[in-house]
Specification:
The protein is an alpha/beta fold and 334 residues long. It folds into two domains: 2-139, Rossmann fold (3-Layer(aba) Sandwich); 157-333, Rossmann fold. Helix content is 37%, strand content 16%.
């Protein structure tokens, strides 16, 4: 039996979906599992022994692109497709690919395209995304244990990460702390740059730590802003790593400080201590799923919201001081 999984489009959601995909493979040990994925999250699904391979999808979801992706998938002759996405387009893709069995949540008006559809009516309102994927597996009639996040790296990937750090002059005997100040969703989810700079300086001076800044290339100005405000110049790798290299670098760190973002879940899956600064979003839904992690959040009357840019004074984030976050960091650094 050959099964294709339509992966989520976000980095964090893809990490959170891995335990459910693994659980499905354990229920169907004779099946071969493939993952259909957007290119920017493809790296999440490499180096896992329960995933045979990946099929890249077009960035666009117009009819022409869907037909092209469907023809690519059709050539593999899959027996079933499992949707970890909620969109109509993703179900239509599997329909166009003529996959005989199409399983997923009945959402976005796509129920008639599914051969096994799972209702969302009985799901709790506040529901962590990892549990949402687990419930999909349970709803399909399979056993699904409590998710435990993971992200497998090869020995070679870890070695290359260490070599990259050494080439940058990093002393691996000192604490290595990663600042992840971006959030692809928008600036509403970002703790202010000056607070990251204040925190980074505290860690450099008080803990003798090496500070590394990571993120996507389109957030380069954010890293430059933080660097210019810090006491000592940090190592800026914003936009200079693949997802696999980022995971390797994070695996060598002592602490990961972040907004609500995809790399936050990568660090959490790698079992690296996470200090997560939350503003408009709900950590019970998208926060770090497992220990070691701590979330810092302020109660404000306008929370929660889905704004990409705060139309007010961004108090949910500005009310969080660098000293408060530094104190939380000390719980992991000693």
């Amino acid at each position: 039996m050959k099964i294709i999984v339509r992966a989520p489009n976000w980095i964090g959601d893809s990490v959170l979906a891995l335990p459910a995909i693994q659980s499905l493979s354990q229920n169907l040990p004779e099946a071969q599992f493939w993952v259909a994925t957007k290119e920017w999250v493809r790296d999440i699904f490499l180096s896992h022994d329960f995933i045979k391979g990946t099929i890249p999808l077009s960035d666009a979801d117009d009819l022409k692109s869907l037909k092209e992706s469907a023809n690519k998938i059709k050539a593999f002759d899959f027996d079933a497709g499992v949707l970890f996405t909620n969109s109509f387009a993703s179900a239509f893709l599997f329909y166009l690919a003529k996959i005989p069995e199409r399983w997923g949540y009945s959402r976005d008006g796509r129920g008639f395209l599914l051969t096994r559809k799972i209702s969302t009516k009985k799901l709790k309102n506040s529901f962590h995304q990892a549990d949402y994927y687990k419930e999909l597996i349970s709803g399909l009639g399979f056993k699904a244990g409590l998710p435990s996040l993971f992200l497998h790296l090869t020995k070679e990937e870890k070695k290359k990460a260490r070599e990259r750090l050494l080439s940058l002059g990093v002393d691996l005997n000192r604490p290595l702390i990663v600042l992840n100040p971006g959030a692809s969703y928008g600036p509403a989810k970002r703790w202010p740059a000056e607070r990251f700079a204040e925190l980074g300086s505290l860690l450099q001076v008080q803990n003798k730590a090496t500070v590394l800044i990571t993120g996507s290339g389109n957030e380069k100005e954010l890293a430059e802003s933080i660097s210019s405000l810090m006491t000592q110049k940090p190592i800026d790798l914003m936009g200079q790593t693949s997802l696999r290299m980022l995971a390797g670098l994070v695996s060598q760190s002592n602490l990961f400080i972040t907004n609500d973002s995809g790399p936050m879940h990568m660090a959490n899956a790698l079992k690296i201590p996470v200090v997560a600064v939350f503003g408009p979003t709900d950590p019970s839904v998208t926060g770090p799923y497992q220990e070691p992690a701590v979330v810092i959040k302020k109660d404000v009357p306008c929370w929660p919201c889905s704004y990409r840019e705060c139309p007010f004074d961004h108090r949910c984030m500005r009310n969080i001081s660098s000293e408060e976050v530094y104190k939380a960091c000390q719980g992991f650094l000693g």
